[in-house]
Amino acid sequence: MPKDPKKNHLRIATRSSGLAMCQAELVRKKILQLAPGHDVHIVPIITEGDKRLDQSLAQIGGKGLFIKELERALLKGEADMAVHSMKDFPGSLPLEFEVAAVLERGDPRDVFVSNTTTNISSLPQNSIVGTSSFRRCSLISHMYPNIKVLPIRGNLDTRLRKLDDGDYDGIVLAAAGLKRLGMQSRISSYFDPGDFVPAVGQGAIGVEVLKESKALLKFLSSIEDPSSRWRVDAERAMIAELGGDCNFPVGGFAEIRGTEGFLKGFVSNPIGTVILSHESSNSFFDNPESLGRVVAKGLIKKGALELMAEI
Predict the structure, then answer these.
(1) For 169-187, how does the pLDDT look when each residue is reduced to its tens digit (9 = 90+)?
(2) Which CATH class is domain 110-190?
(3) Which of 117, 124, 238, 272 could form a disulfide linkage to 142, CB 3.0–4.6 angstroms apart?
(4) In 89-203, at which residue ranges do the beta strands (DSSP E only) sit?
(5) Whole-model pTM?
(6) Domain residue spans in the chain?
(7) What b/e readout covers 231-265, taking b as 16+ CB neighbours within 10 angstroms?
(8) Active-site residue list
(9) Which has the higher per-residue pLDDT, 62 or 281?
């Protein structure tokens, strides 16, 4: 089991979708910049979450389905690292694993995509907007109550095809995914992340390894972007304190302005009639997890746990 990067052969496990393969290739290129003589091979895996597209993620186990089979490949020695979208990670990892690196974060915003209008607010009453996210469904229902929100599953190409076939008047997606696949021309408009709070970790790529792979952990730390890691760690600490995951309408968005880190979190009910938000800040030189916990406790004081218990 090659856990030592000095062995010059590294295997990257990833989901087999176009976007996931693109993200794995970004990690591969980063590693080769660091160590040009290495042989770095991508191992695509079709996960259970990718197979069962006829059911919602909440029904079949949440976004953890995208993670578990890649982690199994690490445990079996079939791969040395796994590349994930950080927004797919559960609030806490199993003890055997660790996030070795978070790459420079892409655009964390959500975007509206439509063939008929540039802005979701311009859609006629009872227009149909597709999303597979509880968070997006809640925010759309709250901000645009005249719109009907229906679920949509599948990779980016599948969702865009359903839009083009006329099944939806618009869909809401992550900006980073479209940009990484060179599809930014499909973006009709961007949501303001201060109002339409992104998913925790949205836009960030994480590299997961076995905790016992000490040499690999050290090696991969060189491809990490410290400010992106700080922001993602703050957001993840918030959701871990809340005990939430993708089965809940929860979002968190951290920014760094100068030497200050800011975090806004929100929790709502699925239909968007109750929205709780809280924000706080601390120094970028302080522990990001402490900021996440402060924001979570602010949400809890406002009734977040009771709201989540109802769900």
Answers:
(1) 999 999 999 999 999 999 9
(2) alpha beta
(3) 272
(4) 97-102, 110-113, 128-130, 148-150, 170-174, 189-190
(5) 0.91
(6) 5-104+204-224, 110-190, 238-310
(7) bbbbbbbbbbbbebbbbbbbbbbbbbeeeebbbbb
(8) 88
(9) 281
